[in-house]
Write a structure and sequence with these properties.
alpha/beta; 6 strands
């Protein structure tokens, strides 16, 4: 059985996954886009290296914060882990808040080659010009991308040049069906009441600061030339701004809390719209009582 545990940040899904893995004596696959990075521990709420369950995890600490890592890379890496487990007829748990990672792993997502260098002519254009160009070539995809998200604009245009097909047309060709037998997949959705979730988030941010998030970011910035991707992690970019003197410590904490709440809301929207046939629980306690009959 493939147990897929989803939910917004601070919903308690990691605790559910760890307890269920202990009960089933099975392995876990990380599906958090920032827990893949080495030394990014406190800000990602990564399981402690000394926790016994850590040995059962796959795809933690697999790249350095200097590197970029794509959804396609995750799909390849995760399937290399998942396929042998299924072949051995063993249970496995996939847990994380990066919905696109989970979709790419479980569904028939087809990725084209996006590694080709960006057209030099595109690099000369500002974001508005890039957006207008994409809108003229692929209006459906343009609707999904903010005009200031230069990286995604360039990627969509490059994909079209490399494959002679728009991204929206490429997606339309896919069946959007499970890559694995659907009878093997059990999706568990942890979704606390909004007030409780926001309280969890606010408390977690305070705890991260108290546990050394600022020192962690200082060490990261000294050890690595942080990639655009890694430095955009919520908690990391705000502390970097604080260390650069752009905000006060109080403003930094408040921004992390606010942006994490906003992110959790987006996660909830994605999960509700992109996943079907899930069983929803309002708390980790309720979920665990049902799953392992406590």
């Amino acid at each position: 059985m493939i147990y897929v545990i989803i939910g917004p940040t601070a919903s308690g899904k990691s605790d559910v996954a760890n307890n269920l893995a202990t009960f089933l004596n099975c392995e876990l696959i990380n599906a958090d886009a920032f827990q893949i990075y080495k030394d990014m521990n406190i800000g990602t709420n990564k399981i402690d290296v000394n926790d016994p369950i850590r040995k059962k995890y796959h795809l933690l600490d697999i790249v350095t914060p200097e590197e970029t890592y794509s959804v396609k890379q995750y799909q390849d890496d995760a399937r290399k882990v998942l396929n042998p487990i299924l072949k051995a007829k063993k249970d496995v748990i996939i847990v994380g808040g990066t919905g696109l990672y989970i979709k790419a792993l479980l569904y028939d997502y087809i990725f084209s080659d996006e590694e080709t260098s960006v057209n030099a002519e595109y690099e000369k254009l500002d974001n508005v010009a890039l957006y207008d160009l994409l809108r003229s070539k692929d209006p459906k995809e343009a609707e999904k991308i903010h005009v200031n998200n230069r990286k995604r604009l360039l990627r969509a245009l490059t994909l079209m040049d490399n494959n002679n097909i728009s991204k929206s047309d490429l997606l339309a060709k896919q069946n959007h069906e499970y890559f694995y037998p659907k009878e093997l997949i059990k999706i568990i959705y942890i979704s606390p009441e909004r007030e409780q979730l926001y309280e969890n988030i606010n408390n977690r941010v305070i705890s991260m600061i108290e546990n050394g998030l600022i020192d962690e970011v200082k060490a990261l910035s000294k050890k690595y030339n942080l990639s655009i991707t890694s430095k955009q992690g919520i908690g990391y970019k705000e502390v970097l701004d604080y260390l650069d003197g752009l905000t006060s410590k109080e403003e930094c904490i408040s921004l992390i809390q606010k942006r994490t709440r906003n992110y959790a809301k987006r996660q909830d929207t994605f999960f509700k719209n992109q996943f079907i046939n899930y069983k929803k629980y309002s708390s980790e306690e309720e979920c665990l009582k049902d799953l392992i009959k406590l």
